[in-house]
Amino acid sequence: xxxxxxxxxxxxxxxxxxxxxxxxxxxxxxxxxxxxxxxxxxxxxxxxxxxxxxxxxxxxxxxxxxxxxxxxxxxxxxxxxxxxxxxxxxxxxxxxxxxxxxxxxxxxxxxxxxxxxxxxxxxxxxxxxxxxxxxxxxxxxxxxxxxxxxxxxxxxxxxxxxxxxxxxxxxxxxxxxxxxxxxxxxxxxxxxxxxxxxxxxxxxxxxxxxxxxxxxxxxxxxxxxxxxxxxxxxxxxxxxxxxx
Length: 244
Known about the structure:
Elements: H1 2-20, H2 24-33, H3 38-62, H4 68-88, H5 94-114, H6 131-144, H7 149-158, H8 164-188, H9 197-215, H10 220-243
Helix pairs in contact: 1-2, 1-9, 2-3, 3-8, 3-9, 4-6, 4-8, 5-7, 5-10, 6-7, 6-8, 7-8
């Protein structure tokens, strides 16, 4: 019956993660509580995120919320970022990465709450060059650890004036590429547990499909409120993880 549990974990993680990021708030702690070793848990999460993020991205691509021209520019940034993070995972402690995540998420949430938001653009424009190092850095972090990665991407894209659904689409595409790159490194190092990863991926796929359709029915103000709430909860959860 364990496969049902892993499917439920995948569903909840992907549903929350697609809407606002922070799916790691649910998935990673639960996987660790079930006794899954940390590297196997991360590897399974990368595999399931690869599947679910592409499925939700493809839905928004078909509906015109994103175009191939902009996504192609993200492939090398996300892929090499994910691979770099995957190789660095064994050299940086989990505590260090958790502290980094707290600082980055707090900074992003503060910008979103206390600085004037740029006017939204109906369709994504060419990304400013200063955004590329930020996207690469987030992809590296995603390959190493990951919790809060999607939230950070959402904030980065929203700061360019992008509408929320387009930000979700770009976030899911970049998550797909960086998770694929990271997963390859975990596969090479033998950390993938095939008794867990496929069932986690099935649940994630279902959660992503439902979540992206829910997002299309919500107002931008509601989606932004969800993003801020999930980010705040994620910061609290990561701080609690350090204290324990």
